[in-house]
Automatic annotation (TrEMBL), chain A:
GO terms for biological process: cell division; metaphase/anaphase transition of mitotic cell cycle; protein K11-linked ubiquitination; ubiquitin-dependent protein catabolic process. Pfam families: ANAPC2, Cullin_AB, TPR_ANAPC2. PROSITE patterns: CULLIN_2 (PS50069). The keyword Protein biosynthesis does not apply. Residues 543-744 form the Cullin family profile domain. SMART domains: APC2, CULLIN. It comes from Cinnamomum micranthum f. kanehirae. Belongs to the cullin family. This is Anaphase-promoting complex subunit 2.
UniProtKB/TrEMBL annotation, chain B:
This is Anaphase-promoting complex subunit 11. Gene3D superfamilies: Zinc/RING finger domain, C3HC4 (zinc finger). PANTHER family: RING BOX. The keyword Metal-binding applies. SUPFAM superfamilies: RING/U-box. Residues 33-76 form the RING-type domain.
Amino acid sequence: MENLGILDSLSDECIDEILQSWNGYCSCTEEILKGKGDLSIESEFVAVVIALCRHGLEGLVKDHFLQVLEVAFKENGVSKFWQHFHDYCDASMMASNKPLQIQENYQSVLCESLEEICLQKQFQEKCLLILVHALQSYEESLMESKKSEVETDNLFSRYQLMVSSVLLTTLPRHFPEILRLYFKESLEELSTMMAEEYEGGNEIQGEGNFDLDEGESLTKIEVDIDKRYYEMNTVRNTKLVRNIGKVVRDLRSLGFTSMTEDAYASAIFFLLKTKVHDLAGDDYRSPVLESIREWIQAVPLQFLYALLDYLGDSVGYDTASSGLKSPLASCPSSCYPGISIPSEGLIRWQLRLEYFAYETLQDLRIGKLFEIIVDYPDSSPAIEDLKQCLEYTGQHSKLVDSFISSLRFRLLTAGASTNDILHQYVSTIKALRTIDPTGVFLEAVGEPISEYLRGRKDTIKCIVTMLTDGTGGHSNGPGNSGDSLLEELNRDAGNQENADCGDDFNIDDKQAWMNAERWEPDPVKADPLKSSRNRRKLDILGMMVNIIGSKDQLVNEYRVMLAEKLLNKSDYDIDSEIRTLELLKIHFGESSMQRCEIMLNDLIDSKRTNTNIKASMQQSQRGTEQGEGISLALLDATIISSNFWPPILVESLNIPAAVDQLLSDYARRFHEIKTPRKLLWKKNLGTVKLELQFEDRTVQFTVAPVHAAIIMQFQEQTTWTSKNLAAAIGVPVDMLNRRISFWISKGILSEMPGKESDDHVFTLVDDMVDTNRNGVINGTCEELLVVDEEGEGSVASVEEQLLKEMTVYEKFILGMLTNFGSMALDRIHNTLKMFCVAEPAYDKSLHQLQSFLSGLISEEKLELRDAFLFITERLKIFIHWPQES
Amino acid sequence: MVRNLGWHPVASWTWDAQDETCGICRMAFDGCCPDCKFPGDDCPLIWGACNHAFHLHCILKWVNSQTPQPHCPMCRREWQFKG
Ligand SMILES: [Zn+2]
Ligand SMILES: [Zn+2]
Ligand SMILES: [Zn+2]
């Protein structure tokens, strides 16, 4: 517009001159762009440009020139350029399942077409330079060259802008994907080459050079650097990197800078992800994080280093960048001291790649955490890796959420045995303790497990068995047999305490972890008071006690189990029980274990007393006839302080007369020695070792006295009716029927229906060979411990005691539920507390109530829906609560 | 033919006192006094001339605290150990 204004004020002469110059300018431009710009044309061009500029038409000259360049670029360059990629428009077609030939083909197509269009661009820039020179000549003629440089810069940047906008507005949609594929495949190729090289230099590389001591670090780092420098050179010199570098440079020159970076970034991340998956796999027994870090150093970082170096924008000796302290910068291998201080860009790349790798590995491991924990402690390398990843990413909440849901899905189901759940829980505790020394999310993860276990009846029993049983925490694990979980825990605690002394830095670690940790623990559960040293004491036993509800309940259950075990011993060997008790005393305190200690002491005393009594009886008996049945030598009694034992089920039983006589003598002698103390025999308790002799063989059994009493009756008389036999041994008929089934199952007795409908006839199977023909060899001895075969213990179990006490409230609970329709557990609990104050006052814990109610649920009297208890439809039919009256 | 290879019976012991608990510490006779860890031989019972029984340790403490003349805590008769 401005130019046209000038035109108005011009003379005709001037206009003619301008027109002439303009025509000359246009034709020269055309010639130059055709590449025919020889010296004469160039000087003519300079002349017309100067002429036009003199008339103030400098802007018009520039605009026209750029316009012509644009048209030419579009016509000769762009459309042809995109044409090359037309065949590859279906980018997905080029995914790896395509023949290699085609892939190579398009790699070279990309290189060549880029080269072609860049050549054209370079040519146009050369043309532009001619214009710049012309303009400079004009300005020199004006003797003022102040602004010239700015002007030319401006011209080039306008040109650059034109090039990129022309390309970007015509960009085919699949082009970025082509770039991504190009980089992906090139990188894969590079990675393979690196792997081969790596293999070659493996011997040096194999040495762990990551945690170096101050002393040896210098020399080692130097070796390291030399080697890396060498590697770097090989990479830099490879044709491949040069080609990639060239492609990147060309793309940048066309204005695809960020698209290119996105493409190789996404290719690198893709490759890294594949690599992490390859390295990690389903192998949890070896650490992979280190190899991943090494690989990042060896492939993508070297590639980036070489690339940035080739492009000339990486290797600034930029000391300012050392201000950027990454958490990894302290690690000597993570930068390249000596070669150059890595550019900030490279460090940023390293951080990005490592973060991505950590996150990928972490997600992979979290997804398989259940299996990993099943495999614990063999899988501890995977756990250690996961710990490091989480420390870096701070995404602990991911672990908690994912693990809880896999627990609910896979473990906390009706199909899993309580034992399995407990073992998995123990492994979980051990494994997570490694990851999270504060125990914050162990609590979060543990809660659903303990909650679930509380609803199971056999939980306490399983826990106690696990603690005291020789099979330890892992029944199928090698090596540890004969070692209880408790002993393992104790060893563990010892180690932990030792470790605790020396690791003050750990507290900082913990603090860092707490800071990094975004997941907010439940403020009630995660008591800040617990968060210091007490928190670390979150031991497995403590978590077990937490399931049961109280220490006392666990101790109680242990006592019942111990009593059962001790009463069924046929000797006085209690070494392993003493060891367990000592360990339990450490955890629960001496006073809690006092009664158990007295029980064990009873066995020690029994052994001594037994020896004394037998010795004195033998003296007085000397010369007297031994009598039939049993000799004193075969008798070994256990004498208990019953006040300290759990309630013991005493049943009447007529034992063989000879034994009975011997027991009376024994008791009398005890009274003589220990006056005024007396012995009270519990004849149904204890063990008896028998040998059944048949014509062709003998068989040994260790049984309860009632079994012995039964079978001995068959010496006098080979057939008994259940009524007669029950009377003979002094037990109720139904108990006889239950107990005798042991001998029937062993093929020693046979059973037939009796004359009366409720009577049975039992007969000694003379010819046992018939029933057991297969595999029976004369004289074979077979020892079986069959105590408690039918689950009839000699000690009242804790549940039996609880059940008896709770049954009183059953009617009350059913009545409440009939009235209210449904109630939550704690409401039932509170109501019982409020109303059942008269004898027997309700004094049970919530857990005890819960386990009683789950009994009612399994009897289908109650059902549980959404945490509310209902009376089942089935039961409603049977209940007729007095409505009126 | 059944041959007995070993009989391992179970019995409990008792002091066989008339009362269940010690009149001094209120603990069971077949248990032990508050100062003792183990019952039985370690914490024996003792009878007075009045036929009242106590944990030995309990009555000794009682007797020592009663001056000049100790009495049975149950019947207030002059305390004398049963001979
Ligand atoms: Zn006492
Ligand atoms: Zn005492
Ligand atoms: Zn008295």
